[in-house]
Amino acid sequence: MNTHIFPLVDRPILGDKYYVPDFARVGGYTTKIWGCNPEDYWYFTEYLAYDSLSLVSNTTKFLIETALAKGTTHLCRDTPSGLTTVYIINFGLYPTPYQQIPANSVENLEFYWSNELAFYSEADAKRMVRELLKALKSQFTTQHFNCLTEAPESGTVVFIPDTSSNSVMSIEFDSSNKIHKELLSNCLIYSSKGYASRALERMVRVLNPSRDFFSYYAY
Q1: 3-state SS assignment for residue 6
Q2: Cβ–Cβ under 8 Å, residues 119 and 130
Q3: Which DSSP string corresponds to 32-91?
Q4: Residue 176 CB: number of other CB atoms within 10 A?
Q5: Which of 60, 81, 103, 143 falls between 20 and 30 A from 171, CA-CA?
Q6: Residue range 152-180, pLDDT digits in tens
Q7: CA–CA distance, 136 with 146 (Å, rounded to integer)
Q8: How many of the other CB atoms lie within 10 Å of CB of 165?
């Protein structure tokens, strides 16, 4: 998928309008007002806050395409006998971007069935949320900061943005090192100090002055 992701880079000021993906609404977005609260910071840190309708629509399209590409076996593609509720994913909801709805709500479920966004269990819905947010972060950081998406050869010098010290660290990548592999998976390894510095600047903008908001909502 070549969808370009352009979320807000700087935190809005109090009272500013912004948009987030919303599968349930016409146009694929919902409008929010920045209130410096945990909800706002969650959308901002998860790359889900946008300043234009065209940009948020692109991201909604990306999330749907990503869900369709997952091909999971736990999707709810029909209403099974005896099932009273199903779970649907919708990033317009907070604090949980999914909700439980009656299984007989055929009209409401049709969109979610067709786009692989309805699930039998809460655990499967939460797992898909994690995968979609991870895919969105990867798409953004790859496009804008050139993070590595494939493991380099062991011994290759790579760079990591470190928010605790507000600096860029260099390491020799080790393909057998679990921590190194996790850093790669989380789009935190870069081929140059310049790319890592740009990523660090973005992280600092997100985290400061309220670092606690970054981990306020965790799956």
Answers
A1: coil
A2: no
A3: EE--SSHHHHHHHHTT--BSSHHHHHHHHHHHHHHHHHH--TTB--S--TT--EEEEE-T
A4: 7
A5: 143
A6: 999 999 999 988 888 999 999 999 999 99
A7: 14
A8: 9
